[in-house]
């Protein structure tokens, strides 16, 4: 279903994660603890317009985020080094960016409130229930509407739309509109972007 994305992910058989053992090595867990504490103390309570301040914090912790991007204070980023946001992209309020693997968000892309970008899962065929991770790639001029879900390994083409509360476990074609669970294409998107 996936693969170990870096050496910080532990073998579930050895770590005995089903019995309460860790899924990631100590260094990785300490980094995330420091990151979460920093975000809670310095970003989670800040006024919405202070995007550059929150981008600075993300950059300090290894994210590659354009200064023109918007990141709201209630956003949750699991592991900043795996986050890449191009110019004028947006992570809206309460977005959960579960970046166990790299997540790339293209230019002028909006990830609306409550959306969940989930780059990690478990291998359901492994008796040890090994955690696996696959990158998510979201193109330019995409709109991921409120409370939608994007699963591991999904690529979303330029100009696509994933409707509110829709669920994407497979790639979405460029310039198309998807609804439902599982997400199903309903029509093409007619935009200025496609006409260029």
Q: Overview of this structure, please?
A:
The chain has 196 residues and is of the alpha/beta class. It has a single domain, classed as UDP N-Acetylglucosamine Acyltransferase, domain 1 (3 Solenoid), CATH 2.160.10.10. It has helices at residues 12-15, 26-42, 51-60, 192-195, and strands at 64-65, 70-71, 76-77, 83-85, 90-91, 96-98, 103-105, 110-111, 116-118, 120-122, 131-133, 136-138, 143-144, 149-150, 155-156, 161-162, 167-168, 176-179, 184-188. The strands form four sheets. It has a seven-stranded mixed beta sheet. The radius of gyration is 17 Å and the shape is globular. Mean pLDDT is 93; it is low at 1-5.
Summary, kept brief:
By secondary structure, this protein is an alpha/beta fold.
